[in-house]
Amino acid sequence: xxxxxxxxxxxxxxxxxxxxxxxxxxxxxxxxxxxxxxxxxxxxxxxxxxxxxxxxxxxxxxxxxxxxxxxxxx
Length: 74
What we know:
Elements: H1 8-31, H2 34-53, H3 57-62
Helix pairs in contact: 1-2
């Protein structure tokens, strides 16, 4: 069972960060720095996936939750 621990505001911030990292990655790939570009694209998947599933493994390990609902079992 997955615990939902990412709130709405946190989710939007993660989506925006993911899109910015993808844009930077595409930019760096276009200008010739392909390794840095691909690293940014791969790293951008972390905030996008955690936002999409509303769960963050690091938050779970640290016992943090930005979700406002107290009963947060999915």
